[in-house]
Specification:
By secondary structure, this protein is an alpha/beta fold. It has helices spanning 2-13, 20-29, 34-54, 60-81, 104-115, 129-139, 154-166, 184-190, 199-211; strands at 90-96, 118-122, 143-147, 174-178, 194-196. The protein binds CO-5-methoxybenzimidazolylcobamide.
Length: 213
């Protein structure tokens, strides 16, 4: 199993997107579990990519092809993430905040939430406070999920919460935040209800937030 996980990790790191489907299918046929595929192969690959980028060994174009390979892989895995749930557990409005186009982690969170029976409306990336507020008013979700991957876009999360307060919408929706630079301390500081470390934790938190509503 270790060998095939290493192979998939190499494919994502190298951005060899033409190879990802066949390799994932081989892994699935071979009984490799989804958790290992996502965490030990694919997310681990993005960590290598991020590290190489930070050290100036690769640049944005290489990061983009790795991201594309990861996205193609997650699409292949998506149907397998679905639990057999007929009852909806609640609704989640999800987006990446303004100024930030990173969406792989958010998409993974969305897929896992859907798989766990939540209705997810994903607004996409680079979403302004105004759009988020409009959509909350329109959809009335149980949970607002905000993602940010850049330290420079973290303050956007605070802005959203401030505007929710200013518009009297804060009591209507629970706010969960996440993304690589986010912490529980930051979540508390800006007045979010919860911080999700990863997609699995995001699902557990969403369950507890909706259970207490
Ligand atoms: Co960018 N990037 N990037 N990038 N990128 C990072 C984030 C960086 C850490 C790389 C580095 O320097 N080591 C760095 C940020 C530094 C900082 O702010 N401290 C960085 C930078 C600098 C940039 C640019 C500024 C580069 C440039 O142009 N010079 C630029 C910014 C563009 C912008 O947003 N305005 C940029 C661009 C890009 C690409 C477009 C090339 C591409 C994104 C493609 C895409 O998303 N479609 C990209 C990528 C791929 C990365 C890295 C390598 C990988 C991110 C990723 O997908 N990880 C990243 C380095 C890294 O994170 N190791 C990096 C895998 C993903 C599954 O994890 O997103 O953390 P993650 O999600 C996790 C958890 O965080 C959590 O669950 C997920 C699953 O476990 N989670 C939530 C996420 N959202 C959640 C929400 C929740 C709960 C949990 O509740 C709602």
């Amino acid at each position: 199993m270790e060998r095939i996980l290493e192979k998939i990790k190499d494919i994502v790191v190298g951005g060899r997107f033409r190879e990802i489907e066949a390799q994932l299918e081989e892994a699935i046929q071979g009984g490799v579990d989804l958790h290992s595929l996502i965490n030990q192969a694919m997310i681990a690959a993005m960590d290598v990519v991020g590290d190489r980028f930070a050290k100036g060994k690769i640049f944005v174009p290489e990061m983009l092809v790795s991201a594309k390979t990861m996205e193609m892989g997650l699409e292949i895995l998506q149907p397998l993430l679905k639990e057999d749930e007929s009852l909806s557990r609640g609704s989640v409005l999800l987006c990446t905040v303004k100024g930030d186009v990173h969406d792989i982690g958010k998409n993974l969170v969305g897929m896992m939430l859907e798989g766990a029976g939540f209705r997810v409306t994903d607004l996409g990336v680079d979403q302004t406070v105004e759009t988020v507020l409009e959509k909350i008013d329109e959809i009335r979700p149980d949970i607002l999920g905000l993602s940010a991957l850049l330290t420079t876009t973290m303050p956007e999360m605070q802005k959203v919460i401030e505007e929710l307060n200013a518009h009297g919408l804060r009591d209507r929706v629970s706010v969960m935040i996440g993304g690589a630079p986010i912490s529980a301390k930051f979540a508390r500081h800006i007045g979010a209800d919860a911080y999700g470390k990863d997609a699995a934790e995001a699902v557990a938190i969403a369950r507890s937030l909706t259970a207490s509503q």
